[in-house]
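Sequence in, structure out. First:
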Amino acid sequence: MADIFGSITANYINLILITAVTVALITVLVSVKQFSAYAPYAYPNARVMARRGRLLDKKQIIEIIDAKKLEDMYNLVSDVPEYKKYLDKFPFEKAMDMDLAETHQILAKISAKKFREFYEVIFSKWDIQNIKTLIAAKEMAIDTEEIKEKIIPFGKLPEDILVRLLDAENIDEIATALKPTVYYEPVIEAISLYKEKKTLLPLEASLDKYYYEKWLETVSEISNDDGNVLNTLIKTKIDLLNLKIILRARSDGLEFKDIIEYIFAGGDQLYEWKLKELMGAEKMVDFVDGLEGTDYSDILKDALTEYDKIGSISVLESALDKYSMELGVKLAKKRPSTIGPMIGFLSQKEIETKNLKLIYQAKLEGFSPEEIRKMLIGGWT
């Protein structure tokens, strides 16, 4: 009897041990799986968190807004080492852009491998901005030395191409200088309409369309929740871009047929038929009413009062830009352990850069601190 009892007890203990070992192995396997899933993000997210800690807080922004002199503003912004190194070399607005471009470059280098192309496309936007700056400057016959001051020497364009672009006398020579690059086709396709209509919109829209097409391609093979967040981010920005193209086209007296090839059909909420309908709206209030049911309706409704006062679409474009920048911060919260920190930081950095440039311009134009607070992205009233 004792032997039987002992045997049962031993078997029971063995079963407990086997169960415990099995549970421990499962726990280890789950932990390893979780670690392997998040490991690629650990280093880039740690780097990002360190840089996020150097973003200006609310108290610092208010001090900058309240600065009595531009010199005081410069000194306050220069307290941030990343800004100081560029403020020592360049005018204020270029210094802010240089720091932001460097941030884009760093994110492209440190990002997890599967997202590297996503951030590399973001970094390439400085090529697009520089080409747009050059085209606009040549249109206005601005001196080459002055144009150089507006160029942000980041991006992927080789230095010799930038030199040739600076030396170009007109749009045809700009196109020729771009021939060895990926930007040649977008420019050459828009030249005829640019010459016919005498507006820069076709050239700028063609370059933007190329940029967003490439950006969207980078997430086409990412099928998990990270891919969904990035997809939403890009497609919403495409909607906002299309709205800005429509606004500019209406202002420049173009017809929908003139811009249809520059409209990007890959947006989130606005289809081609809706954009065509918006283009045909008789008044701006009708344009905004046509967005009812989308996330963009309230944004532009809030900006209509100011638009009615000054009659400039820049008010509406600014409202769309604010929404675009704040979107990244909002979406980042959906993936806090993977792409969230980088997307969130990038959006916060872009907002900070935009706000500092707004404060600088507003102070130059004599706006009061109370008026400046109302202009800023993120709410500082």
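Second:
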Amino acid sequence: MNLVFLSELYRHMEWADSSVWRAVFASPDAGGDEKLRNLFYHLHLVQRAFLRAWRGEPRDLPYPTFDDAESLIAWAQTYYPEVFAHFQALTDEVIQRPAQLPWTEFVERELGRAPEKISLAEMMLQVPLHSQYHRGQINARLRETGGEPPRVDYIVWAWTGKPTADWMFLTNRNDPDAKMGGASPNE
């Protein structure tokens, strides 16, 4: 595993996150759904927690909380420039080194044993895999609220030319003539 591979997975993750958020805001009922907001919060909180750990930031700093989807997405979107900047400071050699998360004692309680040592690269892989799992939950809930989940599989991203994430829908939300963009659910 190397930084080129991981960077590509994170580019896909950002595209997928923006696509799902776009679908939520396009749905009349989904934007105010508390369950969706909680799922998104968990997804983005974990992304942030891993980044904090990699940067050596204190574990006990509180995370912000949000009462609405607009505030949550504003916070979520700022993650990507930060994580890509962090990637710039790494090398393939550095990410192969063993690393430990600051919440190892929690993992040990969950597993009933001490976790094996893993590399920073393996930790970095966990974030897009975890995010993909929860985006599946979000898409299921989006459908329950009457929305239409987008296809955000990696292969769809590759087939469509690996587009960059399109967050413009945030700017254009109140413009009835603006196109939402991104992968449609039926592509």
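Remark: The CA atoms of residues 12 and 154 lie 7 Å apart.
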